[in-house]
Every structure is written in structure tokens, then in C-alpha cells.
Amino acid sequence: RFDFALNTKVQWSKNVRDEQRCPDQILLGSRVDNNCIFIIMSIYLESYLEMHLDSKYLFTDDRDDEAPAKLKNSFANRLRTVVWKKEEFNELGDEL
Are 24 and 8 spatial neighbours (Cβ–Cβ below 8 Å)? Predict the structure, then answer.
């Protein structure tokens, strides 16, 4: 839509049951360089791809076609155990 912004889809979750509740999101850059998503993403991509020249997927050097699914499951499991199952995190929900 805009030549100065990125357009992305919100990932579906258990609370999103129809497409209307899952609109496109617009990512805008920032004039403050340490807060700019475009600069941070470009630095990450440049450094990652420099270290993994023959990488098939981002965030993993696994070349298996199942690598994205394995990586997603690994991070989801880690998020559950490190964040969601912690008492401090659950106490935050009680405050709402």
C-alpha cells in the first residue's frame, strides 16, 4: 500500500476465529535508529546470511523441509515452559 512501509499478516491464534479479526498490519520505520524495525531486521538478515551462506531457511541452519515446523514447535514449547507456566506470568493475568 505504501512504498515506505511493510505490510504483514497477523498470525492466527486461538482468540482469532475469523479473517475480520486478523487484519493486515503495517510496519512503519522510525527516525530513531535503535527503534527502527527496518534497520534492526536488515542488520539481523545481513549478519545471519553472512554466517550461513547456504542457509535454506531463516533462524535455522537445518536444510530439512520440516525445519520451519520443527523450529516453530521448538519455540512454542519453550514459550510455554519459560513464560506461560511461570507463576509470575500467571499473576499478571490475575491483575487484569
Answer: yes
Which pLDDT tens digit goes with each residue over 58-93? Answer: 888 888 999 999 999 999 999 889 988 888 888 877
In contact, 78 and 84? CB cutoff 8 Å:
no
pTM of the predicted protein model:
0.50
Query: Cβ-count burial of 96 within 10 angstroms (0-12 exposed, 13-18 middle, 19+ buried)?
Result: exposed
Q: What is residue 65's predicted lDDT score, i.e. its pLDDT?
A: 93
Decide if 25 contacts 7 (C-beta within 8 A).
yes
Q: Given its phi and psi angles, is residue 57 left (phi above 0), alpha (psi -120 to 50 degrees) or beta? A: beta
Strands (E) located in the chain: 5-9, 24-28
Sign, CA torsion 59/65/70/72? positive
- The Cα 14–Cα 22 span in angstroms is 12
